[in-house]
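Pair request: fold both.
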Amino acid sequence: MKIHWFQFFLEAYDTASLEIQKKARILFIVNVVIIIAFISAGIMINILVEWHLRSALVEFGAGLCLLGTLYVLRSGRYLVASSTTIATMLASLISAGFYGYSGQPMIDFLLLGMNLLPVIFYSCLIGCHKRQPLTAMAICLVANVVYFVVVFLRGPAGPATTAHYALLINSSILIIVSGVMACYIMGIHHEVIAIAENEARSLREKTDQIEKAEERFRTIFNTVNDAIFIHDLKTGAILDVNQKMVDMYGYRPDEVPSFTIEALSAGDGPAVPWCRSPSSPSSLLYQSRFPVCRSQQTPKPLPNTP
C-alpha cells in the first residue's frame, strides 16, 4: 500500500491557515534533510575519520531531537515544533563551535558565525512570529561574544589582537543584519499571505452569493404556474425550461433543447417574435397557441448543423 507521508504527518493542518500549512510542509521536508545530514556527518566524522565522543553526542543528539520535532509536528503543535527545531539547531551548532574541530581558534570562531547565520534565516522560514528570528539573532550574538571572551580574552588563544576584535565586530554586524533581514522578509511574507487569504475569502463569499442567487432564481423559475422557455437570442434554440413546462408538455428536460419552438407550438403556424420585452429590449417575446404534448405528437428535433 502506498503511503502519502505528507498526508500522514500533516493531516492535523488540513483546517489550519494557508501560512501554517505551507510552513508545516517546509518544516517537515527540511527537518528530514537535516536529520539525515546530522547522522551522516556523525558517522563520517566519528567513524570514518576520527572518533570524538563530544562530537558524536552533538551530532546524534541533534538528530534525535529533530526526529522528536516530527512527532510534535504530527500532533498539530506547530509552534512547539518550530521553536524546538530552532533551539536544537542553535544548541548543536554553538556546541560544535565551542568544541572546535580545526584546533585553530580564529578558524573556529569564523566557522561559528558562518554556521549560525543559516539558522536565523531558517527561523524566518518556519517561524510564526517575528520574535523567533529576533530570538535566534540574540542567541547568536550572545554565543559570538561569549566565544570571544572565553577563547581570546581568558583562554589560551589570548591575548586578543586587533584582528580578533575586527572579526568580532564584523561577525556581530553580519548577525544583526541577517536578523533584521529575516524579520523584514517574514513581515513581507505575512502581508502576502494575508492578501492571498483575504482574496480567497472574498472569492468564496462572492461564490456563495452567486450560488444563493442561483438557488433563489431556480426556486422561482420552477414554482411559477406558467411554462417558461429560455432561448438563445440569435438562434432561437431552447436552452432551458422550468418544471411547469415539463409537467404541461410531458417531455424530460434533457429532451427539450433538441426541439424548436415551432415544433412545440399548436401547429397552425410558426411561433414568431411578437414584441420586445419592455424590461429588457434585447429580449424577444414569442406568440404561440396550444402546447403540443407528448401524447398528441412527437415534435420535430432541430436539424443537424455542421
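--- second member of the pair ---
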Amino acid sequence: MYRNACHPIAIPLLLILAIGLAVGCAADQATVAPHVTGVTEEVGELLITPETLETRLADKRLRILDVRPAAEYAKAHIPGAVHLDISAWKNLALSDGGLQDANAWAKNVGSLAIDNDTSVVVYGGALNDVGRAWWLLKYVGLADVRLLDGDWDAWQAANRPFETGTVDVVATEFQPQLQTDRLAQTADVKRYIEDSSVVILDARSEREYMAGHVPTAVNLDWSVLLTDDDRFKTPEELRKIFENAALDDARTVVSSCATGSRSSAQVFALELAGYTNVKNYFGSLRQWSREAE
C-alpha cells in the first residue's frame, strides 16, 4: 500500500516523469463521488449534511456550487446552486503565475456572487473536481468552505428538492487573501527533499509512482482513503492510514499527484483526520517535470 523508493537526485527524471505525468493526467479525471461515512458536519467544519443544507437553502450568506458538467447541472441541481466551470479554474491555477494572479481570482470568485464573508458548499459527483474546488477556495482566502456529505447522490436519494435550468447571479466584490502557507512550490519541494521534518506524499497509483516521482516521496494512493463504495473513511480510519505512512502532527505534510486534483482530495482527507500542517503541491508532477532541474 505504501512505497518509498528513493532515487539519487542525479538520475535523469524528466523522461520517466513525462511517462508518469501522461498517465496521471488521465487518472486525475477519474470520477468518484465525494461521499463521507461516519462523519458529522462539525468535524473540522469541512462537511455539511444534506439535512442541514436543506434548512439553509434560503440563507443569503450561503453559496452552493455545482462542479458537474454544465449539461448535467442544467438537468437538475440543488435549488440556488450556481454552476462552477472547474476546468477553467484548473487551467488558471496551472498556468504560469496563475495561483498568484489575485486579480484573476477576484474576478472568478466574485462572478459567482461570493464575497469574503460568504459560506460555500461544493458538490458535483467527481471527488477530484470537488476537492480541487474546495482547495482553491480555501487558498484564495474563504474561511467556510464545505463539501456536501454524500454529494448529489445522497441529495437525490432522499428526494430532496431540486430545480432545472441555470441560476444567474450578480457578481460581487471579492478580495483574495492568498493563503500561501497552504501551497508548496517547486523551490519548496526541493528543500523538503532534504528535510526529515517534512513528508512528501504522492497520491497517484503505485504504477504511476513507479514510473517516476519526486525524490523521497511516499506513495499513498488516494483510493485507500475511500471505502469500497467510494466514501471517505472515518477520521479515525484516515488517521490510522496516515500514521502508517509515518505521518505525525510534528511533521509537515506535502501532498502531490499529477495536476493537483487527487492531491487536493488528499489534503481534504488529511484535514478531516485532524492534520493542520498540510500543504498542496498543486502543480505536482506537471510542474516538477518542468522546473526540477
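Observation on the second member. The chain is about 35% helix and 15% strand.
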